[in-house]
């Protein structure tokens, strides 16, 4: 339970205290969550792309003159092969990047402090839990987007450039949805990442089962995000097509509602309640 002494402090000093915490929150993300995210996703990327690059080099050595001529030359053939490899990689792997990143970034973001009792020491200072955890969420969101940008630059240096505004927009919005759900669950209970996975599985199943049903009861499925359509977002990025903004607005709006609900819970629910 937070100590309400912060209510008597000037707003400027209050914000300054929270801002100082932000430096530690950013450092903690990089050292713990960010490092784990980078290791896991880096390993998956290597396993996904490394073997295919070897196959590509083998095909390049054994490509016939007719194949090269049809592509417009050796350089054009190689570029086309790299483009196909990159498109398949983004379409199949970008969703994994966002999902894993969201799980790591917000797992236990509130629940861990509640379970260990650390919140008693943390909020002995004049800091609002709503501001503190809201700031932590924003920092993790921004840090993950920066981490994806760095990974995209590495991929671009080794294989082919992929960093673009549509890529970052898709990553940021989809992260907001998944992380928002987990943030809300973490503010309410212990099993935050399991709750997020449960919502994802349930939403995918119910949308596939009842999404086109004319029954009025089936309309309740609209309370869940249309996760069965996330592939449309990732495919648009992979193919270089226009992003489906109506879907991104839906996903982002759902995540934003969850974040606001989590802040509301933190504002009015005692942290001592497990």
Structural class: mainly alpha
Bin the strand percentage: under 5%
Q: Evaluate the radius of gyration.
A: 22 Å
Q: Taking all residues together, what is the mean pLDDT? A: 83
Number of helices: 10
Task: Describe the 3D structure.
The protein has 274 residues and is an all-alpha fold. It has one domain (4-268). It is built from ten helices and no strands. The longest helix is centred in the N-terminal third of the chain and has 52 residues, at 11-62. Residues 1-13 have low confidence and may be disordered.
Summarize the entry for a quick read.
By secondary structure, the protein is mainly α. The chain is built from 10 helices and no strands. The radius of gyration is 22 Å and the shape is globular.
List the helices and strands and how they pair.
Elements: H1 11-62, H2 65-71, H3 74-106, H4 111-116, H5 119-122, H6 129-158, H7 165-188, H8 192-210, H9 230-239, H10 245-268
Helix pairs in contact: 1-3, 1-6, 2-3, 3-6, 3-7, 3-9, 6-7, 6-10, 7-8, 7-9, 7-10
């Amino acid at each position: 339970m937070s100590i309400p002494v912060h209510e008597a402090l000037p707003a400027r000093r209050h914000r300054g205290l929270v801002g100082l915490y932000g430096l530690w929150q950013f450092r903690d993300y990089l050292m713990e969550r960010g490092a784990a995210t980078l290791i896991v996703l880096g390993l998956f990327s290597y396993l996904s792309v490394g073997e295919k690059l070897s196959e590509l080099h083998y095909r390049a050595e054994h490509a016939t003159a007719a194949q090269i001529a049809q592509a417009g030359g050796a350089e054009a053939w190689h570029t086309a092969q790299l483009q196909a490899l990159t498109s398949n990689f983004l379409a199949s792997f970008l969703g994994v990047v966002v999902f894993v990143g969201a799980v790591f970034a917000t797992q236990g973001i509130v629940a861990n402090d509640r379970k260990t009792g650390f919140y008693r020491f943390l909020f002995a200072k004049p800091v609002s839990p709503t501001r503190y955890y809201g700031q932590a969420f924003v920092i993790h969101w921004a840090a993950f987007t920066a981490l994806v940008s760095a990974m995209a630059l590495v991929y671009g240096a080794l294989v082919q450039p992929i960093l673009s505004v549509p890529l970052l927009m898709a990553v940021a919005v989809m992260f907001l949805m998944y992380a928002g759900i987990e943030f809300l669950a973490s503010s309410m209970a212990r099993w935050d990442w399991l709750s997020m996975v449960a919502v994802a599985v349930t939403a995918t199943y119910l949308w596939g089962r009842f999404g086109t049903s004319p029954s009025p009861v089936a309309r309740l499925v609209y309370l869940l995000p249309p996760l069965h359509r996330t592939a449309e977002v990732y495919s648009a990025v992979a193919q270089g097509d226009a992003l489906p903004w109506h879907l991104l607005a839906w996903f982002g709006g759902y995540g934003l509602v969850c974040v606001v609900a989590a802040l509301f819970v933190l504002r009015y629910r005692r942290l001592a309640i497990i």
